[in-house]
Amino acid sequence: MIEDGTSVRVGDAGPRPVHLLFSEPTRPFGDDPTLDFLVKAHGQWVSIETLVRTRDGDGLDTFLSSLAEDFRGWEGACAWRSLERDLTISAEHRPGGYVHLTWGIHDRPPPEEWHFETTTVHAAGEDMRNLAAELHTFLTSTIE
Question: Residue 2 above 80 pLDDT?
Fold first, then answer.
């Protein structure tokens, strides 16, 4: 869900589930296609954040959109990763019409000392389309 023009929250609210917050999209080099944003994972037992570096979002919104269009399902896992592999996603279509997105947040190389994963569950089709649209709005919010 879009919280304002420049942040997106993914996952369940509440004290125990972990949710992700995408925020602070910036173009650190002006007109260059480099797009940075913060991703934070927060829950009762975890609170981490990292800066994610992409080239115009690395097609994150397109990846999620393609999952939404394939609402009848697919075999195996589909994967996406950011330019510097600080954010990864593995998507699986499960019985009952749900998509499980496993989000990986990684320490920047070197030293790559830590790695965190959490899974969010989304209804195939419209729920995935909404997520893709929200992230598209987020990723394009720095374009003037």
Answer: no
pTM: 0.89
CA-wise closest residue to 91 among 72, 63, 114, 112: 63
Give the residue carrying structure tokens 């993914």.
10
Q: Which two tokens stand for residue 12?
A: 């369940």
18-46: string of b/e by CB count within 10 Å (b at 16+)? bbbbbbebeeeeeeeeebbbebbbbbeee
Locus of tokens 């593995």: 90
Q: Which residue has the tokens 């007109």?
A: 31
Least confident among 23-32, 44-53, 107-116: 107-116
- Report whether pLDDT(112) > 80: no
Nearest of 99, 116, 27 to residue 63 by alpha carbon? 99
Q: Is residue 50 a contact partner of residue 59, using CB atoms and an 8 Å limit? A: no
From the list 3, 21, 8, the residue with the least C-alpha distance to 118 is 21
Indicate whether 131 pLDDT > 70: yes
Q: Is 121 helix (H, G, I), strand (E, B) or coil?
A: strand
